[in-house]
Design a protein that fits this description.
This protein has 303 residues and is α+β, with helices and mostly antiparallel strands. The chain is 44% helix and 17% strand. It contains 10 helices and 15 strands.
């Protein structure tokens, strides 16, 4: 099905999850480029990081089949998919006893080859609505009002009012898809000259969203300042913790093995998404020091 109907199962170019030749690094890079472009031209950037509660488990099967038909997938093929999902059952086992089986009416099949394409296509309804509204940031003629990695959604706007309207669109379209956004795990974030100012909270339905001094996006922590800046202290702390665990459990292991362990587990932590970040010389020096400390530990070298 993927080979024959891939042109029908497409999703937004701003969706970076579950795609070939696409990664978290590209999403982070685009976020940085948008932020730097607007700050450079004297504008502030306002961001809403939305958390979709158990989005993969809340995919409504009937609505998913309808979207497939609307995309032009042949009806006979949709019938086959309907049959697959209609036979998904669940039962609870407790103290040796098994409950009656119930039909699972929502959620995509974990591990299924088609599941990533189905999810991207399903949540793409929200992104189409955002693009139709034309609210949010633009780079020239290119719309970049949101960036998505699977169910991780970031809304980007140069206007607080537009950002509220974008949140309202996500809420309305999410309700139609049975996708619930969690206000307690969603945050607002600002970049530019306005980073020190106190702004009025925006609303996700009837619940307020708070402005945060830092947010975590795709494994990186960003702090609110005049430009989009990654907080490397969490990266350094995580790398030292992992290094200490390795050295603790490898007292009697030779140096080459320790070196392989460090380069397999510590270097990826230090270099994660590094090509997407515009690091200063001092920030590069901090990463360098951390790396050198681990090497000195392996070979028992003085500073």
């Amino acid at each position: 099905m993927l080979n024959k109907f891939d042109y029908l199962l497409t999703s937004s170019d701003l969706q970076f999850g579950f795609k070939q030749k696409s990664s978290c690094t590209q999403a982070i890079f685009l976020l940085r480029q948008v932020a730097e472009y607007f700050v450079k031209h004297g504008s502030n950037v306002y961001i809403a990081s939305l958390d979709a509660r158990k989005a993969f488990d809340r995919v409504n099967h009937v609505k998913m089949f309808t979207i497939l038909l609307d995309r032009g997938v042949p009806g006979r093929l949709v019938k086959v998919i309907t049959d697959w999902y209609g036979k998904s059952l669940a039962a609870v086992k407790w103290n040796g006893s098994l409950s009656d089986a119930v039909i699972i009416k929502s959620g995509i099949r974990q591990g299924g080859i088609l599941s990533p394409a189905f999810f991207n296509m399903y949540i793409d309804v929200i992104f189409h609505a955002l693009q139709r509204s034309d609210l949010g940031c633009h780079l020239g003629s290119m719309y970049v009002g949101y960036i998505a990695y699977a169910d991780d959604i970031i809304l980007i706007s140069a206007s607080v009012c537009d950002l509220q309207s974008m949140i309202d669109i996500c809420l309305e379209e999410g309700n139609n898809l049975d996708i619930v956004f969690n206000a307690s795990k969603s945050n607002l974030f600002k970049i530019g000259k306005v980073n020190q100012e106190k702004l009025v909270c925006l609303n996700l339905g009837s619940q307020p969203l708070q402005w945060a001094e830092r947010i975590k996006y795709l494994g990186l922590h960003f702090v609110s300042c005049k430009s989009l800046k990654a907080d490397l202290s969490t990266v350094i702390r995580k790398s030292y913790t992992s290094a200490n665990n390795i050295f603790k459990h490898s007292k009697y292991v030779n140096e080459i093995t320790k070196l392989c362990l460090v380069e397999s587990y510590i270097l990826p932590i230090l270099t994660y998404a590094i090509e997407a970040l515009n690091l200063s010389k001092s920030e590069c020096h901090v990463l360098n020091v951390c790396c050198n400390n681990n090497y000195r530990k392996i070979f028992e070298m003085h500073k």
